[in-house]
Amino acid sequence: SSQLTAPPSKSAKSSRSWSASPHNCETRARKHPHAITQGSHGTGYPVHIPHGGTVLIDVLIDEGELDEAWQTAEGLASPTQWLALADASAHTRPADAARVYQHEVDAHKHITGDGNYLEITKLLIKARSCHERLGSQTVFAQYVSDLRTEQKRKRNLMKILNQHHL
Fold first, then answer.
1. How far does CA 156 lie from the centroid of its chain?
2. Cβ proximity of 78 and 51 under 8 Å
3. Which of 55, 128, 138, 157 sits most deeply, having the most CB atoms within 10 A of its CB?
4. In degrees to the nearest 10, what's the CA dihedral of 69, 75, 79, 80?
5. Any long-range contacts for 152-161 (C-beta under 8 Å, 24+ apart)?
6. Half-sphere exposure of 30 toward its Cβ, with a 13 Å CA cutoff?
7. What are phi and psi of 10, to 5 degrees?
8. Looking at residue 30, what is its pLDDT?
9. pTM of the predicted structure, to 2 decimals
10. From the centroid of its chain, how far is CA 37?
């Protein structure tokens, strides 16, 4: 089958779980989705991803199987994988993507520093785009207003948000 001779996906290459074929990697990942950074979990195969999560989620995203990736991600995906899934799905699942972006903003808002403020801004810009697709700009505007009220003492964050019309 063509699946046995296809080149390895990016996730299979980067996960170091690649052996003889992409089919082997994907089959192992589907059979053992909980096999995360700690190793093989009895499967006999190394399943290491530098940023956590599972090989299966990366494979599904790489292969464009986004609906299945969303179903698999719950309870398994790392923050990096959630963001990759949101980025890949922003046009087709804007509500889901917006929730991921806003969750990450909430996770970052307690950290100070301009680099973090820029990350918050990037996430907000992505969330804004999703809300525009959904026609829910007022919901987004209220979210940003609440965030600004909560974070008003962070002058540099307010300055960066203003520069990006947020």
1. 26
2. yes
3. 55
4. -30
5. 154/112, 154/117, 156/114, 156/117, 157/117, 157/120, 160/114, 160/117, 160/118, 160/121, 161/121, 161/124
6. 10
7. -55, -40
8. 53
9. 0.71
10. 17
Q: Specify the residue for token string 């299945």.
A: 68
Q: Are 12 and 18 in contact (CB under 8 A)?
A: yes
pLDDT (tens digit, 9 = 90+) per residue, 65-87? 999 999 999 888 999 999 999 99
Q: Give the type of residue at 136.
A: S
Q: Which two tokens stand for residue 99?
A: 């929730």
Which tokens in the block code for residue 138? 């007022």
Tokens standing for 44? Answer: 């006999």
For 81-119, the pLDDT digits (tens) are: 999 999 999 999 999 999 999 999 999 999 999 999 999
Tokens of 115: 């680099």
